[in-house]
Amino acid sequence: MIRRELKVSNRLGLHARATAKLVQLLSGFRSSATLEVRGREVNAKSIMGVMLLAAGPGTEVVLRVEGEDEQAAVEAVVALFERRFDEDS
Fold first, then answer.
1. Contact predicate 4/74, CB 8 Å
2. Which of 1, 12, 60, 83 could form a disulfide with 66 if both were Cys (CB 3.0 to 4.6 A apart)?
């Protein structure tokens, strides 16, 4: 299992479009993934679950990925967060 702390740095936080990008990205991996915010943990492959976290800009999130392709999944998610979900240009 890989655990990674990330910060939501895009202007609108994990709103619908950003969440959809995250879930779509993770759906391409076989590993299971969870996101945790303020003690609440959800399936990171669930749009509704991630939306319920209400993670706004600056929110610290913990990503946990476990499975055969966990390293590649974590790297892809980290890159998405670093690109600010391709929203801020």
1. yes
2. 1
Q: Which of 66, 69, 75, 87 has the alpha carbon at shortest distance from 19?
A: 87
How crowded is residue 71: how many other Cβ atoms within 10 Å of its Cβ? 12
Whether 15 sits among the annotated catalytic residues: the reply is yes
Per-residue tokens: 78? 């980290």
28-73 per-position pLDDT tens digit? 999 999 999 999 999 999 999 999 999 999 999 999 999 999 999 9
Q: How far apart are the first and last CA of the chain?
A: 33
Phi then psi for residue 4, to 5 deg, are -140, 130
| pTM for the structure as a whole | 0.95
Domain boundaries, given as residue ranges, for the chain: 2-86
Q: Which of 2, 13, 15, 84 is catalytic?
A: 15
**Residue 3 to residue 33: CA distance in whole angstroms:** 10
